[in-house]
Amino acid sequence: MSKRDYYSVLGVSKGASEKDIKKAYKKLAMKYHPDKNPGDAKAEASFKEIKEAYEILTDTDKRRQYDQFGHAAFEGGGFGGHGGHRSQGGAGFEDIFGDVFRQRGGGFGGGGFGGFDDVFSQSRGGRARAQKGQDREYTITVDFVDAVQGTEKVVELPINGEQKKINVKVPAGIKDGEKIRFSGKGAPGSHGGPAGDLLLSVAIRSHAFLERDENDLICNTKVDIATAALGGEVEVNVLDSRFKLKIPAGTQSGRKFKMAGKGVTSRKGQTGDLLVKIQVATPTNLTDKQRDLLEQLRDTL
């Protein structure tokens, strides 16, 4: 059975750089590694094929010969064969994954590959590399007003197997889905590596009449039908502010009145506008007198 094209084996183009080839190889090697697929002959065969393609394409001389003559360059002893000396230009299997296979019996027929983690965490000489611990991520929920104005709260989280209380400063202007980072509060590192980080993703509760659009603060304000038609004033409550807003006669539902620079100040210090959005309230449970008056009005329209 004819061999597959080495570039196809690694899933890269013919013009791929050595960096791209190494990246593709490492990804495939981790997928088909015998330690991850014990007893799977098909996976082992794929792993050998990937390794062979990698060793050819990362060797400058061999890659040049392969590009010119294909697999024939290494058959029947021609051009030095696949098992020949490797030039200085190419990195071999051991250059990425260390000398682990030689040290532990080597090869697929040897006494064992060792732990899969060992293969990818050891450098040449068998010394373990320091690795940063994993980040831990949790979600905390805060009220809309607290997210706009900022707040402090104590949350209890499972950290490294223990329930711990953490004082969290929620910065003013934080958006839904933004994260608060605590460096070094995640999982511990290995072999002397630093601990990971703790990330708190913020979920913001909806408000009864306030909304946020980027840095603009929208206040939904109800106005009765008479005031909307005839004009007048309505009291508006926004966060800690309370003021009177003049409603022009004939105001339609959905109209917005803007107050520049009175919106939300983001974590970057950018402040939006306050938009008072009018919602004309349709009356319900009318008295007989109110119904008569509305019918008279309707007759005149």
Quick overview of this protein structure:
The chain is α+β, with helices and mostly antiparallel strands and 301 residues long. It contains ten helices and eleven strands.
Give an overview of the whole structure:
With 301 residues, the chain is an alpha+beta fold. The chain is built from ten helices and eleven strands. It has helices at 6-10, 18-32, 41-57, 60-69, 93-97, 100-103, 116-121, 144-149, 225-230, 288-300; strands spanning 136-142, 151-159, 162-170, 179-182, 198-204, 210-213, 216-224, 232-238, 241-247, 256-259, 274-281. The strands form four sheets. The chain has a four-stranded mixed sheet with strand order 6-7-11-10. A three-stranded mixed sheet has the order 1-5-4. The chain has a two-stranded antiparallel ribbon with strand order 2-3. Helix 2 (18-32) packs antiparallel against helix 3 (41-57). The longest helix has 17 residues, at 41-57. The chain is elongated.
List keywords for this structure.
3-stranded mixed β-sheet, 301 residues, 10 helices, 29% helix, elongated, alpha+beta, 4-stranded mixed β-sheet, single chain, 25% strand
Give the neighbour order of strands across the main sheet.
Answer: 6-7-11-10
Specify the overall morphology: elongated
Distance between the termini: 89 Å
- What is the gyration radius calculated from CA atoms? 34 Å
Main sheet record: 4 strands, mixed
Instruction: Provide the helix percentage.
Output: 25-40%
